[in-house]
Amino acid sequence: MPFSFHTHSGQFCRHASGDLESVVKAAISKRMLVLGLSEHIPRSRAQDLYPEESDMTTHDLHKVFGDYVAEARRLRDKYSDQIEILIGAETEYITSTTLEEVKNLQSKYALDYLVGSLHHIDEMPLDFSQEKYERLVDHFSGDRAAMFSRYFDQQLELLQALQPTVIGHFDLVRIFHPQTLEDPLALTEVRERASRNIDYAISYGAIFEVNSRAWKKGLRDAYPQRDLLTEILNKGGRITISDDSHGAGDVCMYYGRLLGYLRELGAHDLYYLSRVGGRVQALVMENATEHEFWSANGLT
């Protein structure tokens, strides 16, 4: 049955591929029970458009998001007898006004949930490319610990303002950090910030996604990496799984490797979202790593 609550399509995200319906069909073909759709919240400043959006305006982005919600609702109804579809969005936090914009969009479109993700530090993109990542390092005068600390400080601001149901790629700041260099999270001042965020997220009932897309970026582990995931589990944090798919071909991407990762760390129970009694709730699937889904898809 497992699931994913972090998905994108080329129809509504320029750095993804294919249409949203193909993502839904791929999830059905893999016998997923619940699929969460989570296209990006639109950005509201022209300088925050990405290179592939050079022919677009921020007004276009907002229209695309409205079109996404309409299409997601159509697909939810069309395939309701084959899969449960929840309609959410992935957050941004770029400027002081971004978080209020997210709240307004969540209310306007009655979104089922939010994936709380941070893709910028001090208004600069974090995960777009190695080159832009190194510009961020330069912004902190080469002090990678300061950059990581700022990431977790801004992440806390996002968590406090939005209390997202699902926390997206918790340690995304590691994405392009050279593995030959010391891990800033090994430093006390950085790790304490990450631990603080974990504690806060657990306190309001967040679910941490274990995101398999990290392997596509060449990282050793899924997000969160094993040091942080172990801490989350030891503190009783709730986890789910996500493929962060950017098209139908990514659905359940690296889920076989993900299964091994979960088993290695003793993470056998997973949480998922489902509409119960008219509202979306978090439910637990005990012994999820033994579910028939894995063998049915040749992932064991």
UniProtKB/TrEMBL annotation:
<keyword id="KW-0368">Histidine biosynthesis</keyword>
<dbReference type="GO" id="GO:0000105">
    <property type="term" value="P:L-histidine biosynthetic process"/>
</dbReference>
<protein>
    <recommendedName>
        <fullName>Histidinol-phosphatase</fullName>
        <ecNumber>3.1.3.15</ecNumber>
    </recommendedName>
</protein>
<comment type="similarity">
    <text>Belongs to the PHP hydrolase family. HisK subfamily.</text>
</comment>
<dbReference type="GO" id="GO:0005737">
    <property type="term" value="C:cytoplasm"/>
</dbReference>
<dbReference type="InterPro" id="IPR010140">
    <property type="entry name" value="Histidinol_P_phosphatase_HisJ"/>
</dbReference>
<keyword id="KW-0378">Hydrolase</keyword>
<dbReference type="GO" id="GO:0004401">
    <property type="term" value="F:histidinol-phosphatase activity"/>
</dbReference>
<dbReference type="InterPro" id="IPR004013">
    <property type="entry name" value="PHP_dom"/>
</dbReference>
<dbReference type="InterPro" id="IPR016195">
    <property type="entry name" value="Pol/histidinol_Pase-like"/>
</dbReference>
<feature type="domain" description="PHP">
    <location>
        <begin position="5"/>
        <end position="212"/>
    </location>
</feature>
<comment type="pathway">
    <text>Amino-acid biosynthesis; L-histidine biosynthesis; L-histidine from 5-phospho-alpha-D-ribose 1-diphosphate: step 8/9.</text>
</comment>
<dbReference type="Pfam" id="PF02811">
    <property type="entry name" value="PHP"/>
</dbReference>
<keyword id="KW-0028">Amino-acid biosynthesis</keyword>
